[in-house]
Design goal:
- This protein is an alpha+beta fold and about 375 residues long.
- The chain has six helices and 19 strands.
- The strands form four sheets. Strands 2-3-4-5-1-6 form a six-stranded antiparallel sheet, with helices on one face.
- Mean pLDDT is about 90; it is low at about 1-10 and about 365-368.
Length: about 375
């Protein structure tokens, strides 16, 4: 079997020995799950390893449990990998909840290295149902280079001094009491100015029907939120791009277009409610932007975005492509099935994500 992926000598490392029954079976279940999320999985002599954006994660079967190892380039990456591994071991291990204690780098941290408080400094309505909130904070350079998305921590209404989660010995958050526990949602950094210490976040406004919309509707300058990230993949280099999404993915598509150099080709498909929800996207590429309008249909109830993806002619074989979709769950399944099963695209060239599911809040199960 291949050896565990090597890391530079300077990489940060942590490990945890955890007593669980049936360790080999548990490792198989964990890495089968990770493979479903398009991670690069390698089988090793006593377990399995995964290559992630910021390092590697591995699990090794022992007679009475599992040895987990996390390696990363920096503290933020190490904290992410430790938390990811702990949560998946807890999810798939049989019997009582495993007791996980990490040793090595990062064990003395009292806060998550990629967490910061940020304050609202500006609010502007971009379209009738899109509101831009500008947040101010420190150390934002990583958000310009390491992924488009982040986790937004919204304190409960009326809490003037928010309390935030802190890392436990298992790498997972220890939360404040329920009356002070923040809600967490995933958003996109629409644009960023690291020198000024600010970035913009665009919220789809639909009243009190979601945590993010409710918060953005009532936000005022000076309000405090928590931010953890960045998360997600950086935009890869390709010759031809296919970008597809509804309002929830519009910030990611727009930022991607604005970040690409001249000469890139492809198509961007953006579904919105109607023509009033379009907005200018200034970019230097040759990528064609096509707006799709629901014209009265509820979000997530039509097939027009999936149909539009199928109608786009793919480039000639040998062209380096990047196909991205950020859509409702049912549309995500249709597009992913088309790209993988019908076109046979390589998983490294495809990023299809369910940004939301009709009738469910973020964090609720979204099984097939």
């Amino acid at each position: 079997m291949p050896a565990e992926p090597s890391q530079p000598a300077s990489a940060l490392q942590a490990e945890a020995e955890v007593a669980i029954p049936n360790p080999a079976h548990t490792i198989e279940k964990v890495f089968e799950h990770l493979a479903g999320h398009d991670l690069d999985i390698r089988r090793i002599a006593d377990g399995a390893a995964a290559s992630l954006l910021y390092g590697t994660a591995s699990m090794h079967a022992r007679a009475d449990g599992v040895l987990m190892r996390a390696r990363a380039e920096d503290e933020a990456g190490l904290a992410y990998i430790k938390g990811m591994m702990a949560s998946h071991l807890i999810e798939f291990a049989e019997g009582p909840r495993p007791q996980i204690v990490w040793t090595g780098d990062g064990v003395d941290a009292t806060t998550f290295p990629n967490f910061r408080e940020m304050r609202v400094v500006r609010i502007a309505d971009i379209t009738p149902h899109m509101r831009r909130v500008t947040l101010s904070g420190h150390g934002l350079e990583r958000f310009a280079t390491h992924g488009l998305h982040f986790k937004l921590f919204v304190p409960p209404a009326g809490v003037s001094e928010p309390e935030w989660p802190v890392p436990g010995k298992d790498g997972l958050p220890i939360w404040p009491s329920d009356d002070k526990r923040p809600k967490i949602r995933t958003y996109t950094v629409r644009s960023i100015d690291p020198g000024a210490g600010t970035f913009d976040v665009d919220f789809v406004m639909h009243g009190d029907r979601s945590v993010g919309s409710r918060w953005a509707m009532h936000a005022t300058p000076g309000d405090i939120v928590g931010v953890r990230g960045p998360v997600g993949r950086p935009v890869p280099d390709a010759d031809w791009y296919l970008l597809a999404g509804d309002e929830t993915a519009l910030p990611a598509i727009a930022r991607t277009l604005e970040s690409l150099p001249a000469g890139k080709a492809g198509v961007a498909l953006i579904e919105v409610a109607d023509e009033s929800e379009t907005q200018p996207i200034r970019h230097d590429t040759g990528i064609e932007v096509r707006w799709l309008f629901r014209n009265g249909a509820e979000p997530g109830t039509t097939t027009q975005l999936a149909d539009a993806v199928r109608a786009v002619p793919m480039p000639a074989a040998g062209t380096r492509i990047h196909a991205m979709a950020g859509v409702e769950f049912d549309t995500f399944k249709a597009i992913r099935r088309y790209w993988r099963d019908e076109l046979g695209l390589d998983k490294k060239d495809v990023l299809a994500t369910a940004y939301w599911r009709r009738g469910k809040a973020e964090g609720e199960p979204a099984e097939d």
